[in-house]
Amino acid sequence: xxxxxxxDQLELKRQARAWLAERYPLDREWDAAQxxxxxxxxxxxxLGVSVAEDEGGVGLGFLEEAILxxxxxxxxxxxxxxxxxxxxxxxxxxxxxxAVAAGNAKWSAEVNGxxxxxxxxxxxxxxxxxxxxxxxxxxVSVDPSRxxxxxxxxxGTPLPGPRDVPRARxxxxxEAVGIAQRVLELGIEHAKTREQFGxxxxxxxxxxxxxxxxxxxxxxxxxxxxxxxxxxxEDDEQAxxxxxxxxxxxxxxxxxxxxxxxxxxxxxxxxxxxxxxxFYKRALWLEGFGSRPSELRLEVADAVLxxxxxx
Amino acid sequence: xxxxxxxxxxxxxxxxxxxxxxxxxxxxxxxxxGAQRFDxxxxxxxxxxxxxxxxxxxxxxxxxxxxxxPYSFQAIFYEEMARAQAPGHVGVIGLGMxxxxxxxxxTDEQKQAxxxxxxxxxxxxxxxxxxxxxxxxLAAARTSAERRGDVxxxxxxxxxxxxxxxxxxCILVTLSDxxxxxxxxxxxxxxxxxxxxxxxxxxxxxxxxxEFNEIFFNDVQVPVSNRLGEEGEGWQxxxxxxxxxxxxxxxxxxxxxxxxxxxxxxxxxxRVNGDAGTRERVAAEWIELQALRxxxxxxxxxxxxxxxxxxxxxxxxLRWSEQNQRLTKLGRELLGADGILDDGWWHHQxxxxxxxTIEAGTSEVLRNIxxxxxxxxxxxx
Lengths: 311, 381
Fold this sequence. Notes:
The structure holds two protein chains of two kinds. By secondary structure, chain A is an alpha+beta fold. Helices cover 53% and strands 8% of the residues of chain A. Chain A has two domains: 7-158, Acyl-CoA dehydrogenase/oxidase, N-terminal domain (Butyryl-Coa Dehydrogenase, subunit A, domain 1); 165-305, Butyryl-CoA Dehydrogenase, subunit A, domain 3, CATH 1.20.140.10. Chain A has helices at 7-23, 38-44, 62-75, 81-88, 94-101, 165-193, 205-233, 239-265, 276-288, 293-305, and strands at residues 107-109, 115-116, 123-125, 130-133, 136-139, 148-151, 157-158, 195-196, 199-200. The mean pLDDT of chain A is 97. The mean pLDDT of chain B is 91. The chains are: A alpha+beta, B alpha+beta. Chains A and B meet through α6, β9, α7, α8 and α10 of A and α7, α8, α9 and α11 of B.
């Protein structure tokens, strides 16, 4: 047993962190439209990570995609990577996969009647597993950098692969861990530098213990997210229960991490100018999209207790 | 990353599983822990069996009687022990704390004298750190050690000492120089618990049992050759002990939790059918257990690569203790009126769990450790 990333995977993580930090800094123009730099993502190979080499991809797997998703969450990346890679890719055939890897097609999926990025993607995997053109009504999203819409269905084209729910959930879990890690770091930085009563506020246990609790939350969340990612990557039989557990736990951990970080930041954390609310809204989006944590826990209960009789 | 056993790991797991099947009598499985596991001769006998089977001190070097096995074998050992609901080795303090400290700071004579006897349970050890006036604040220890020629004369009182009623030796933190600056006047001694002047008085806990004790030292003579490290360097030696207490604990804790969650699932299957709220709470405990389990694996991955447990491990004891309190309360709640029957397993577990957030570093101290050493926040004192 070896539950650690290898050197290549760690290097990918470092590179992603650096590349995203430069292009998606905390002091970006948040309220302006953000460039998703899709062609650059294709060039980096991020869009073809798990696509086979003879189909124009890199030939790696979901673990590497989860690493990227975590970093995209950490940077609060606005584009439809989660939709294309996390939600749609498993359903696609070879031609569509090649188009994705080349950066020529953006995808999303319909989940509980909602389609993220409906206006900015080309195609959508609908609830029945068919490909649809991306058109329909745009709705208001709690996270403006992650818009939602309602699909206007055409006849659709059947897709060869499955709607891979564990994969989608594991992808969201990875992103949630990135969000939680980032707001923890923001909270630590603030607690080290902000002084009150002549001392950095991090000396006060009422402040530092909130951050310690967030740390514990983030580490446990990370363990579940990586476990789920490994199960999905290896097509392990535990993938469904691991992904349900991971999505429930990580989304709630991310929301709590944001709430504690806002509290630690005091009034500053409550302002529009400070980026914390952007992370908070992404965490709330992740918690609410697809199945809620309570529904996921009931799925886990069915798996570990058995389905209740006569209910 | 590969969560499957390697060939060697799978072979070790299979061999251990077979060994437990052959050597552990059925009626000795699923005990409730606490004082019960130590008060009969079976404890030492079983520990000796583990030693003879090669399962005590798996990661210890062979020259000290260990197996020199990789850390992953230790993890598998805990998993399989939990699976068989097997009682643990009685030498908890010796294996987890005294032994590693002697390996790090001991003389050759001390290593020869004690290490293999710790593994074989010929020597049971206890820990003399906490005092009535020095709990979380270990540097405030006042038990004195006065040098007189070849001996230290020890006077004072220690408290919350598990296994002291059985122990042959004690790892003792003393104040040898009351005039020294804080952290600099402490000396770490190995004390023979059968020495004249040592008196052990059991402390009864809220469970009714006496797992731990007070130890009184009245003019106890300890040979200078029993000192671990230099005079005045007791603080550094004690930190080694505590690092091991918190560093190697994770898998053992999770293994115990695994048994409890298993029992929780059992009663939930029997007594909860369609009550979604309760099913959700049970599932939440199962999820938290997996989170702890895989955090252990991550810490193990770091340990295997660097020789030092990863920082993520520092969250484990904190979260384990809180989970054990929550889930034992839930288990008892699910039993309804049966949950207040006084000899019940859940009743005992729930009461015992209140100590989990206090023993081996209170949750408050652990949060300070995370804040200061892991997150790099300024010291609070």
